[in-house]
Specification:
Largest sheet: 5 strands, mixed
Oligomer: single chain
Number of strands: 33
Number of domains: 4
Strand order of the largest sheet: 3-27-26-15-16
Structural class: mainly beta
Length: about 500
């Protein structure tokens, strides 16, 4: 294939004064990795450093949220204490504990253990920006909603001061949060995590975005496989059924046919990535047939890992068939291997997908289908730079769960503060997973820095018909991308 050109650009400068440092051009010659690079355009906006003489803001310690519940089937829950930034010394933090309707040892224990003076001692280690403690529910503890524990940050070691979210209430029941908001734990400038957000439960679940490779659809009547869209994975079908017959030579031409018209309604196959809207019938890997010979081998480019520069994750070859238990059999190997590994994946209707890593086998990734509403992530989207639509890795994307609906409201029509239950009936909700997408923020450019859009907010209807309003309040955390913030409030409780 011809030499390929990857162009990238970024912004440098102080927080409020960005200058263009544009268009370093890299010639990429023939190797397996160029198939991905030729079809995936990555724009990275790098926030500048502070001026050397500018004082740093206060470094605060606080909880991620103010309330959380623990479901009857859950035996433990872990809470994080977060700093604005890491420190160069160990930071001791004391957390006061107040019980209501529950008793230590009888109903719960903690790690670290609570002292006789009702304090949990936690230490945030030097070089870290967080620490955690765990509440373990004892056998037979009631989950009727009468039991509560209030945790309050009482003191912290210098130079860290106590932040505003310094009190957290744990209810011994599932809750429907009336309000909440927090900083999304995206992993900082390398966007290391995909973060699942549960509005009713007022909690987030960050997962390393390279933890998995493939997701297997659990619908009893359908057999579909999705790629890890947060690591720029791509897949191409090979007209072979024997995994051992596929070699590195089969990757030739990977980049020659990736330009495709995503907007043509007649197109049913969308190149090498899953269709960004979340349409399960438009995945890079075809529906898994009940007739085994119809299921071909795919070559997989695993995309990039987490880091600067982002490391290449290499190539795999896979084949998926249905197994006799109503689930999936995954066969996978390195691209040049002459033997392969098999993994059996059972369907579980509590989840939309079950996940597999090529390194570790079956892995837990997203929470149960009713336990998350939104996810923040890197995301394999699509865009047109003038030559047709191509895969495009986008940062700061918000995607919604398959059982969640959303709608965008411009503040010129209705303000966030005044939006109320009476306004819901006039809304037209969308189930497209990228309906919020990147619309909540502007991406910046050669002369502007990225920022949130303050002229809009979002209304979210969850799987229990709870309706929330949500708005983003920050794109940066202490000047760092990858940790945006939002707030939300319950508008109508589901019935």
């Amino acid at each position: 294939m011809a030499d390929l050109i990857l162009q990238d650009w970024h912004l440098t400068g102080s927080r409020n004064n960005y200058s263009e440092k544009y268009k370093s051009t890299t010639m990429i010659k023939g190797n397996l990795w160029r198939g991905l690079l030729s079809s995936l355009v990555i724009l990275v906006l790098i926030n500048g450093c502070r001026k050397k003489d500018a004082p740093l803001p206060d470094n605060t310690v606080q909880f991620e949220s103010t309330q959380q519940g623990i479901a009857e089937a859950v035996t433990s829950v872990t809470f994080k204490l977060k700093l604005d930034r890491a420190t160069t010394a160990d930071i001791p933090v004391s957390i006061n504990v107040t019980n209501s309707g529950v008793a230590y040892t009888t109903n719960y224990t903690t790690v670290p253990a609570k002292t006789a003076s009702d304090v949990i001692p936690v230490t945030i280690l030097s070089g870290s920006s967080e620490a955690s403690f765990t509440v373990n529910k004892t056998a037979g503890a009631l989950n009727d909603g009468t039991g509560k524990i209030v945790f309050k940050i009482a003191s912290s070691g210098s130079p860290v001061i106590i932040g505003t979210t310094n009190e957290l209430t744990l209810s011994f029941s599932e809750i429907v949060a009336k309000a909440g908001g927090y900083i999304i734990d995206g992993g900082g400038t390398n966007y290391g995590n995909k973060v699942f957000i549960d509005l009713a439960g007022n909690k987030q679940t960050p997962v390393l975005r390279t933890k998995w490779d493939l997701g297997f659809f659990t619908d009893p009547s359908d057999f579909r496989v999705i790629l890890n869209s947060s690591s720029a994975m791509m897949a191409k079908q090979i007209n072979k059924n024997d995994l051992n017959a596929v070699t590195a030579a089969d990757t030739a031409g990977f980049s020659t046919d990736v330009i495709f018209d995503q907007l043509d309604p007649k197109v049913t196959a969308f190149g090498y990535i899953d269709y960004p809207t979340g349409d399960i019938t438009k995945t890079a890997i075809a529906q898994i047939s009940s007739t085994a010979p119809d299921n071909k081998v795919y070559i997989i480019n695993r995309g990039t890992g987490v880091g600067t520069p982002a490391p290449a994750r290499g190539w795999k070859k896979i084949r998926v068939i249905r197994n006799t238990s109503g689930g999936y059999t995954l066969q996978h190997a390195d691209i040049g291997a002459t033997s392969f590994t098999e993994v059996q994946i059972a369907k579980d209707e509590k989840y939309f997908f079950k996940y597999v890593s090529f390194e570790t086998g079956a892995v837990d990734v997203e929470p149960e289908k009713k336990k998350w509403d939104l996810a923040w992530s890197y995301f394999s989207n699509m865009t047109d730079f003038g030559g047709g639509f191509v895969p495009y890795l986008f940062q700061d994307i918000i995607i919604q769960n398959r059982n969640v609906q959303t709608v965008q409201i411009l503040t010129s029509a209705k303000t966030y503060e005044t939006f109320a239950e009476a306004d819901i009936a006039a809304l037209t909700f969308s189930a497209i997973q990228t309906n919020i997408g990147a619309n909540w923020r502007s991406g910046g450019g050669p002369t502007t820095s990225p920022s949130i859009r303050t002229d809009r907010f979002y209304v979210i209807k969850d799987s229990d018909n709870n309706v929330y309003k949500l708005r983003f309040t920050a794109l940066l955390d202490a000047g760092v991308r990858g940790r945006p913030a939002f707030e939300y409030a319950l508008v109508k409780r589901g019935s």
